[in-house]
Amino acid sequence: MLFEDFASAWQIFLAAGFILALVMGAVVNKTGFCTMGAVSDWVNIGDTGRFRAWFLAMGIAMLGVIIFEYLGVTRPDDAFPPYRMSDLVWLENILGGLMFGVGMTFASGCGNKNLVRLGAGNFKALIVLSIIALIAYFMVNPFPGSDKTLFSTLFYPWTSLTTISLDTPQDLGSMLAGTDNVVMGRLIVGLILGLGLVFIAFMSKDFRKDKDHALAGIVIGLAVLGAWITTSLIMVNADGEIVSLSSYYTDWDLYAFDDVGKPAMGAPLSPQSYTFINPTGQALGYLAVGKAASNFLTFGIVAALGVIVGSFLWALFSKGLRFEWFASFKDFYTHVIGAILMGFGGVLGMGCTIGQGITGVSTLALGSFLTVFSIIIASALTMKVQYYKMVYEEEASFAKALVAGMADLKLLPDGLRKLDKV
Prior knowledge:
This protein is mostly helical. The protein has one domain. The protein has helices at 6-31, 35-45, 49-70, 90-106, 111-119, 123-140, 150-154, 156-159, 172-177, 182-202, 205-209, 211-233, 245-250, 252-255, 278-288, 299-317, 329-348, 355-360, 366-392, 398-408, and strands at 2-3, 87-88, 164-165, 235-238, 241-244. Strand 4 and strand 5 (241-244) form a beta hairpin. Helix 2 (35-45) packs across helix 19 and helix 3 packs antiparallel against helix 10. It is globular.
């Protein structure tokens, strides 16, 4: 997609993000797709339907991204955020994932699910998203009158010590095949993993019978892929030179006469797809700048808005608009704690259950796999602990409930448990 001016290209860049997200928001609302719900169904009733929908979305996005990268269409190497960077921040991936997993369980859903709930009239989600936005914003932006961020103050001094500098990008194709065979390595690994995920999804007879699960997985996977393709293909004809939006921004003074219409940031102009924690922080910055707000629009901000609008439209169409508020003070502070943990964890782990669990995984980045695995384990353990404490009440200390939950998930030997399995 070639445009004769930057403004037109940027508008389509944003419009595509909004439209695809709108469709995704409507479908998520219709089908009940929820990554926290997927973990809950698996842990509590042994139902893997929503888990398989998640795997299907992962598989479709992965197959599409890797195949189109092989064909020279998608450009995940240049992505924002940089999923494939050679510095593997494994501790941040794991810690961020653990925090996010606990947080989304306390807050009744991940960032995407809370956007969907907000669109359907759930004002608890507005509180959750506002807190996520505040934490996420100051994780990457300095406090007023300071050069310190929450990340640089609380995490970087010690998490940076564990960073592993790789000789290759951190995607599994590069790590296994090396730089000399990286293209073919990515294609082979992506095909194996992507087809495997799709096979796992459809191998269940119950899943094949449930049209909503299949619809959710297919549409979300295609939306993530569509965003990758669109943001990779949009180019500008700058005086006869074909450049990407991010390259145009870098050399703005070379191509433009003045700063009119220049975005506030260049990184968000890079190839990307859906993620919903950092963009909520971007939205807070957008709302705070007033007259110059249009220059602060990003793909992530319009994507979040698209999910809300899509969910709202489906709620109106299906007569499912329901206004909800907190049932009790305990319900309120549990959601607040969850939102805080998601704000920290989503930025630290560089994504959420969509941002890392589908978008990041589609690039084969090792850090993405570490984050999503940590999210699942933390969410499952949180549910186990909550259940054991509910059943055993005063007898179940946090430590006893945690050990019992870990034994249930085969993370510890069964002989260590102090509470009988329930």
